Amino acid sequence: MIYFHGGGFVLYSATDALAHHNCAQMASDIPAIIVSVDYRLAPEHKLPACYEDAVDAILWVRDQALDPEGEPWLKSFGDFTRCYLSGRGNGANAVFHATSRALDLDLGPLKIAGLIYNQPMFGGVQRTNSEIRFAADHLLPLPVLDKLWELSLPRGADRDHRFSNPMIDGPHKSKIGSLPRSLVIGFNGDPLIDRQQEFIQMLALAGVQVEAQFDNVGFHGVDIVDQRRALALIKMVKDFII
Fold it and tell me: Where is the Alpha/beta hydrolase fold-3 domain positioned along the sequence (predicted)?
């Protein structure tokens, strides 16, 4: 599994304690080899820097399979034909955009078998009902969400840019039907829930095999602070992979 941490494209890293603990728990409970990616952050490195680093990570894993001197822990224990991309929040956004870019590349013998979107972060100029309803969310209030997009999107872009809002019409949508099977996980108390459901609808209409797992109780990042939810989420991922 290639994993992309959350943080709104602006915060945290692969070495952050919470991200590391989450990856270690997934590695143990699934079990799986987790390659956690330390991508460049905004505002110093605006999008698509994160996506470029994500594609580089995919190619690095592929190269380990091709190189006789590749990393032994991957070559000896990894199955390159069953690679999954997973991310939380903006990391799930990166899963979508990086995989879309990777469709144009020769990844063999690596095969992306599935995509896992944990509470994916998408946006748009028009406010959704959930953004308005949870505008004062304790973890992701609307002003913070707007600021994260302002810091991370290309200069001059608004939240209807395809990086933020892939649901808008554009040439990027021609690739969506080629994406592998997908799991989308969310919580109904998340300000992003309406965007996530629009995203699922877009995938399904394009013919992607998509599984949606939404909990009526919970909020954005609840699995970070609630170990029971974290374990339940890992079981969803395990069931999807196994």
Answer: 1-222
Residues 50, 92 contacting (CB under 8 angstroms): no
Q: Sheet holding 35-37: strands in order across?
A: 35-37, 2-4, 83-88, 112-118, 182-187, 210-215
The yes or no reply on domain 2-241 and CATH 3.40.50.1820 is: yes
- Tokens representing 16 are 């952050």
From its phi and psi, is residue 49 left (phi > 0), alpha (psi between -120 and 50) or beta? alpha
For residue 87, what are the contacts with CB-CB under 8 A and spacing of at least 6? 3, 4, 5, 6, 93, 94, 95, 116, 117, 118, 120
Q: For tokens 């091709």, what's the residue? A: 66
| pLDDT per position as a tens digit, 62-86 | 999 999 999 999 999 999 999 999 9
Instruction: Report residue 222's pLDDT band, with 50, 70 and 90 as the boundaries.
Output: confident
- Torsion sign across C-alpha atoms 36, 39, 211, 207: negative
Determine the residue type at 50: C
